[in-house]
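Shipment paperwork, digital attachment
Item: protein structure file
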Amino acid sequence: MDVFPTGRASFDPPQKSADRLWSQVVELLRDERERIAGRDVSPAVDVQRLRAVIGAYDFDRPASPDAVIDEVAELLRTATVHTTHPRYFGLFNPTPTLMGVVGETLAAAFNPQLAAWSHAPAAAEIEAHLLRFLGGRLGYPPEAVAGSFTSGGAEANMTAVLLALTRTWPRYGAEGLRALPGRPVMYASAESHLAWLKIAHATGIGRDAVRLVPTDGLRMDAAHLSRQVAADRANGDLPFLVVATAGTTAAGAIDPLHELADLCGDLGLRLHADAAYGGAAALSDRLRPALDGIERADSITLDAHKWLSVPMGAGALLSTDAEGIAETFRVTTSYMPADVPDTVDPYTSSQQWSRRFMGLKLFLSLAVAGREGYAEQLERDARLADDLRGALAATGWRIVNDTPLPVVCFADPDDSTQEHHDALARSVVESGRAWISPVRLDGRAALRACVISHRTTPEDLNELVQAVNDARKAAA
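Attachment content:
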């Protein structure tokens, strides 16, 4: 039997040894795909045992690759919330497409350096093409789209804030906040993703500079926003950015995009659209109208590792302001390769410098499925969510959100307390039958289920409904 080399020799083993290892991995993935639906979505974890197994690797001596791979796979199998499970109805972590997994493998194997265009022309042009395609679907003129792939939505949103600060106050980039005549403040819905607080901290404007605007029907209240901006200006603060969320994490709510765009135009504010989740709807002609107005935003965040079903991470920042992005990230060094005419070096349009070829997994997935294939899947998710709403309502639950996106929030009308809903979610998760989460919407307790996996079937929805009903019965 071929013996896999250990030590430094394992870095580039003979082809026969490598083939045997890849065969083991392929068989492992096949087994996982075939058996995942029969496993608990969220296995119970013995923390001390987990740490003991991992801690046994002291790295003093080489280990058999076969044994290491099998043991790590078992750890992942028994100590992971399985986001690839058809009854994972949790956060925006979908089952990845097969081509997405292949894309990650190719990106790792070729390992292109996406800092300088000259080091990775194919990778840089593939990502630029993807950005133009996505921007075009969202309503930007494709030929004008600029931006970058990011580690996720948080980095893309931080890029938008940096861009807004740079464009609003040209001195900010060189002199920092001390060059400004007051404190910058920005606005986002109270139902938005609170990464804005971390972003405000990192950019130096401070967490107190984030105004969380109350909602009306879980959507940002534009009238309240207008009053808040006026009050802040009267107080000497400097409003500069409004964030419209197109698909909130908790409820899938879409802020009033046209109304906010009109307001920003009247008040002289920049508008950013956080469509990390909901932006995927742009690939469906049927769902795209829910995003009407997003094309008026100065910048847009889209996160392909959410509803576009590619492995993490794969965020993107889109804008038509190539000049502003270049100013935000401009830098000149002697050690980087010279510019190539009519190209953009990725390190000059992104917070990152050296980085992974993140766009390949989406490129392969889109190329093989086609936009219509993606539209079919997105629309199927939306229909399944409608079916889930109907099944829950028919068994006495109250649906508490209204969205065309497949995020279903529901509450027990007989007990509105947060403690009750927390206990129900915990009971469902600990049963291993499904994964859902408790949530607060406009201060009210509810449960949240997001249809996010292309493996989910109507039978999985029936199991979820039965699981929450069993939990409610047991709590009575």
